[in-house]
Design brief:
heterodimer, A: mainly beta, five-stranded antiparallel sheet, B: 116 residues, mainly beta, four-stranded antiparallel sheet, 47% strand
Chain lengths: 110, 116
């Protein structure tokens, strides 16, 4: 069963605009959440994370929001750049294993 | 560059052959993880080590899969009697055991396996 879900397989955004990627989870025991960016034929690259005791974490153009009551998190990228085009994975830590969603493919167009 | 490294990057083998992949973690990281990623899916956890101890292996896909980390540094993942369904990207990750980043895993570039 998929405990972490990314329901949008793809997203297209114009350069300079905001990209919002969404993620839902089912296991209330998850206490740490991460976003990874992945290019084809490469391993995932860590972007940003958030602990379950927080509701927001910001790092440059990237902000992650966590809504524990809704079991929902989102990644905001502002402003979006063409180099941001990649597959983005949401992951939740359950002690040692990361549980990943299926990813959202982001395309930022000039 | 002191990131996670994996070798080989690509492996093509025939069904029934054994294959072994190597992972070198970030040097100060005590924990090492193996994942598998198939097309259209996110990475799937397989096993992990803290130093040389394999603390979780119940999610290895079958008894054909085994992993070692004999000296607590590099690790190997072996697949015996490969099947076409084993074709995937095999990812290694590492993390520290303490500090603010202990729950963040850093991934290597992966080994792409194709079983013919």
């Amino acid at each position: 069963d998929q405990q972490v879900k990314q329901n949008s397989p793809s997203l297209s955004v114009q350069e300079g605009r905001i990209s919002i990627l969404n993620c839902d989870y089912t296991n209330s025991m998850f206490d740490y959440f991460l976003w990874y960016k992945k290019y084809p034929a490469e391993g995932p690259t860590f972007l940003i994370s958030i602990s379950s005791i927080k509701d927001k974490n910001e790092d440059g153009r990237f902000t992650v929001f966590l809504n524990k009551s809704a079991k929902h998190l989102s990644l905001h990228i502002v402003p979006s750049q063409p180099g941001d085009s990649a597959v983005y994975f949401c992951a939740a830590n359950s002690g040692y294993a990361l549980n990943f969603g299926k990813g959202t493919s982001l395309l930022v167009t000039p | 560059d002191t990131g996670v490294s994996q070798d080989p990057r690509h492996k093509i083998t025939k069904r029934g052959q054994n294959v072994t992949f190597r992972c070198d973690p970030i040097s100060e990281h005590n924990r090492l993880y193996w994942y598998r990623q198939t097309l259209g899916q996110g990475p799937e956890f397989l096993t992990y080590f803290q130093n040389e101890a394999q603390l979780e292996k119940s999610r290895l896909l079958s008894d054909r899969f085994s992993a070692e980390r004999p000296k607590g540094s590099f690790s190997t993942l072996e697949i015996q009697r490969t099947e076409q369904g084993d074709s995937a990207m095999y990812l290694c990750a590492s993390s520290p055991t303490a500090g603010p980043l202990e729950k963040t895993q850093y991934f290597g570039p992966g080994t792409r396996l194709l079983v013919l």
